[in-house]
Amino acid sequence: MIARVLCTLFIAFIAATALAADPPLSANRAIYLYQGPDRDKQLVEKAKKEGKVSFYSTMTISDAHALTTAFEKKYGIKVNTWRGSDEKIMQRAVAEARAGHDDTDVFEMNSSQVENLYREDLLEEFYVPGIQDIPANAIPKHRHFFPDRFTFFVMAYNTNLVKPADVPNNYEDLLNPKWIGKFGIEASDVLWFAAMVKSMGEEKGMAYFQKLAAMKPDMRSSHILIAQLVAAGEIPMVLTAYSNNAESLKKKGAPIEWKPLQPAMGQSSAIGLAKNSPRPHAALLFAEFVLSPEGQQIIKEVNRVPASMAVDSPLNKFKYELIDPGMALDESDKWTALFSHLFLGGKAVPKGE
Q1: Cα separation of 231 and 96, whole Å?
Q2: Which residues are registered as beta bridge partners of 53?
Q3: Are 27 and 278 in contact (CB under 8 A)?
Q4: Residue 254 near residue 245 (C-beta atoms within 8 A)
């Protein structure tokens, strides 16, 4: 009788222990997180056997080409790139997953949409050495994607139209009556607006932006266009230029300069690995390349802002805050309505470029 009771207790203990233990890693998760001493050798060998990578990205064709050709030359692994907008990539990824057509390996786009992929359970956590060089505040707690490049919103101005002594030093300076109708804002920059209001404190922030809207800013679509308009002298100043666009025009000799007013806001684009990638070793190796100093140097060379602190860039040498990727998903309707009311007369917010 005692033996039977002890046996029953032992079986119950084993069952409870099994339930309490962490579940075994999925096949791809085990590959993505493996850090054994033979990791590098195994990763390269098995990635070469898989032979190719399917890469979905919002990068321009030329930027993506610079990365993929360098990877192909180094490892002899073909990269098939499909370029689309954030929205189209998201739609395609979800449709393919629901249809059971899992042929995608790597995603790269705005971090808010990569967060959306995570919430749809389409990504898997992974490790590559390069993540140690990414600012900790840019890495999501769930670690299912990592930033590979940043975009910063800065004030850009025409140096022929704005005298050095008149250049605003802070956001309050923009409320000077002399700037009425003489500065622009890109017409899709809802996230910049939302992040600014939150950073200032909602009550104070909304009060400020009501005053700013009364200054009658010139609302234009396309970040590239609005920087070009400043360089051409059609708009003396813009508040939400991308630093890399302004710097590119400056290097070409255009009369344009840029300055990050505080709080300076930025957003990240990020890279994530498909949970059900059919080529997990090649997927991981490609992500490792993009986030490595070598890959980040290429991102710098195509006039983007690398996320890695291991690569020096003139485009991020200032204090900045990163926009929360989740805010675009969780609070979009609220901030879009407020932005439209203040700056667009209630009209629909255009899609950003």
Answers
A1: 43
A2: 79
A3: no
A4: no
Measured distance CA(73)–CA(298) in Å, rounded:
14
State both tokens at 54: 């399917």
Q: Is 104 left (phi over 0), alpha (psi -120 to 50) or beta?
A: beta
- The DSSP code for 176 is S
Q: Which residues of 276-305 are buried (b: 16+ CB within 10 A; e: fewer)?
A: bbebbbbbbbbbbbbbbebbbbbbbebebb
pLDDT in tens, 35-77: 999 999 999 999 999 999 999 999 999 999 999 999 999 999 9
- Three-state DSSP class for 222? coil
Tens-digit pLDDT profile for residues 16-31: 333 334 445 678 999 9
- Which region holds residue 263: left if phi is over 0, alpha if psi is between -120 and 50, else beta? beta
- The alpha-helical segments, DSSP class H, found in the chain are 2-20, 27-33, 39-50, 61-75, 86-98, 111-119, 190-200, 202-213, 223-232, 243-251, 280-291, 293-301, 325-330, 332-343
Cβ neighbours for 166, distance < 8 A, ≥ 6 positions apart: 178
Which residues are within 8 A (CB) of 95 and not within 5 positions of it... i.e. 6 or more apart? none
